Amino acid sequence: MSTLRQLSEGMSAALEAIAPHVVEVRGRRRPATGIVWGPERVVTAAHVLRRDHDLEVVDASGTVHTAELAGRDPSTDLALLRVPGAALVAPTWADPANVKLGNLVLPVGRRATSLRTVLGMVAERGGAWQTLHGGRVDEWIDVDAELPPGFSGGPLVDVDGKVIGLSTHGLTPRGAVLVHATIARVVERLEQRGSLAPGYLGVGFYPAEGGSDALVVVSVEPGGPGAGAGVLVGDLLQTFDGVEVHGVRHLLGLLAGSGAGAEVELGFLRAGQATTVRITLAERPQHKSWGRCG
Fold first, then answer.
1. Which tens digit of pLDDT belongs to each residue from 127-145?
2. Which of 18, 167, 170, 270 is the most exposed place for a label (fewest CB within 10 A)?
3. DSSP three-state, residue 35
4. pTM of the model
5. Nearest to 50 by CA among 67, 26, 33, 71
6. Rounded distance, CA 138 to CA 20, Å?
7. Domain stop point among 173, 193, 213
8. What is the mean pLDDT of residues 249-258?
9. What is the pLDDT of residue 292?
10. How far apart are CA 124 and CA 159, in angstroms?
11. 78's torsion region: left (phi>0), alpha (psi -120 to 50) or beta?
12. 128/48 Cα distance (integer angstroms)
């Protein structure tokens, strides 16, 4: 019994430790959660923000702050908010090497001054993975706990009150975790460039025959970036800014990582001859779905 009591009290202490660093985010009808990233900075899940303006953050004391959207990255479902004048302090992040299979963890959410949690366990660990929208997440952490409504954007906490990652429903049906390395990389880009719309080529691809990772151009959208740069049906895409392309999903990740507005160099094989094309990536039109068209 004493062991169970110690475990229970340890989890309570962990929640007390994380409480000052967790905020409520008001960006849609139902509030969500955010994590303090630094002075006047909060990270949350991009999908919980149904609007770009009239945003608010509620800190642990119940104080309501006006927030501004610094940018969002749909490929990783991450958004960065600026909270001018708020005396916010970032939490301590856990060392990923110390997150083990079977560890007890606590997904945390906030509703005004009330902290909420559920008990979970690390059910699976893995390496880097790519989201359906092409974003790269540096580590895979699967938690067996159901992520309740309003918890997206909130922290996944270990029993010491350190943050393992940001929980979100926006990437997988069960919920996913964005680890610190991923958040730091995306936040740096959001600070520099604002919202990151994935790059768009206006070119349809299909895997080349013979088991190759190269992609053959099967369609070119009239008036699109690819057409303007001279991409032709039948071209074989081999490289993207010097990186070998390994299939459609890899290409989507490269487009997401570059972002709309970036100028990239594509390496093609055309009629047996190597050729390069420079293209300024556009933003994907609203009517275009994610698929084989890059």
1. 999 887 778 899 999 999 8
2. 270
3. strand
4. 0.79
5. 26
6. 27
7. 193
8. 83
9. 44
10. 18
11. beta
12. 24
